[in-house]
Amino acid sequence: MTPILVTGAAGFIGFHLAVALLEQGRPVIGLDNLNDYYDVTLKEARLRRLEAMPGFAFARLDLADEAGITRLFAEHSFEIVVNLAAQAGVRYSLVNPQAYVTSNVVGFVNILEACRRHQVGHLIYASSSSVYGALTLMPFSAHQSVDHPVSVYAATKRADELLAHAYSHLFRLPATGVRFFTVYGPWGRPDMALFLFTRAILAGEPIDVFNRGAMMRDFTYIDDIVGGLVRLLDRPAAPDPAWRSDRPDPATSQAPYRLYNIGNHTPVALLRVIEILETCLGRKAKMRLLPMQPGDVPATFADIDDLARDVGFSPATPIEVGIERFVRWYRDFYGA
């Protein structure tokens, strides 16, 4: 069985996907640069878990290292590549936009080039609900046009989708883009709201609540995300015979190209999330109500009908259950 390449393997989603694949007996090559965008010790702890599992090998490598990516693909015969490595975070893209272009655009082109040169059978890559930008018609559908990003992060993710289509069209590379909606759960990212809130509430510090709490998010539990990804692995994108150039569908193509949303299809008010968190922690939050941040959006809501139809995707984790599991992990990991 040829190994599956998972980039961003020491990251939140990449770690969980690699664990799921290894538990199925599928070998994994995990790639990560272990950068310091957030706490490296958390990434290293995830990596130690992976390295203790049979079938895992690690490559410390940056996507922007073209020579290194070329060597990696020459050394292994990847049939499936899952590109989850990226410079994440909407707010940080206001401070360091160059990091997003380097990782999310230049790095992704290196992956695309390696996939086409080595005839990879299926590329799955991470996009984001952020690409919906200024749109307000919800639920967000992959069949909508998304040409008005409101952050540099969102713009780089949309660029990835367009680049993937070009490679699918030119080189018949089967490419499936997945737009993640507010992923949360154990081993989550410290820059995400749930993690920040938990840390602050336990420390007795105020939490920053933007748009004065008038926010809705399609919070999606990590196990549901991984379940969707696993179902997509062995279903390479294929040309859509019904695609029309005079009425183009953004989610499909005459090329082997597909876009999907992976979300919970159940938006939750941010203030409700805080209430659940307070119950799980046994403490009240001190809230600092602030205006909307640049680059942010007031609501997200995923249309997941396509993924449900094509691979039987069905998110099954209520927000109350998911937050309780996250809090249990946080207390255990940090001794809180």
In short:
The chain is of the alpha/beta class.
User: In which range does the helix fraction lie?
Assistant: 25-40%
What low-confidence regions span 5 or more consecutive residues with pLDDT below 50?
none
Count of DSSP helices?
10
Oligomer: single chain
* Overall pLDDT: 96
Strand content: 15-25%
> Which structural category do the helix and sheet elements fall into?
alpha/beta
The overall strand count is 13
What is the molecular shape? globular
Described by strand count, sense and barrel closure, the largest sheet is:
7 strands, parallel
Tell me the series of helices and strands, N- to C-terminal.
EHEHEHEHEHEEHEEEHEEHEHH
Strand adjacency order, main sheet: 3-2-1-4-5-6-11
> Cα-atom Rg, whole angstroms?
19 Å
| N- and C-termini, Cα separation | 42 Å
Plain-language structure description:
By secondary structure, this protein is an alpha/beta fold. The chain contains 10 helices and 13 strands. The strands form 4 sheets. It has a 7-stranded parallel β-sheet with strand order 3-2-1-4-5-6-11, sandwiched between helices. Strands 7-10 form a two-stranded parallel sheet. A two-stranded parallel sheet has the order 8-13. α1 packs parallel to α2.
What keyword list fits this structure?
alpha/beta, 7-stranded parallel β-sheet, two-stranded parallel sheet, 336 residues
Layout of secondary structure:
Layout: E1 4-7, H1 12-23, E2 28-32, H2 40-51, E3 56-60, H3 66-75, E4 80-83, H4 97-117, E5 122-128, H5 152-171, E6 175-180, E7 183-184, H6 193-203, E8 206-209, E9 216-217, E10 220-221, H7 222-233, E11 257-262, E12 268-269, H8 270-281, E13 286-289, H9 305-311, H10 319-334
Parallel strand pairs: 1-2, 1-4, 2-3, 4-5, 5-6, 6-11, 7-10, 8-13
Antiparallel strand pairs: 9-12
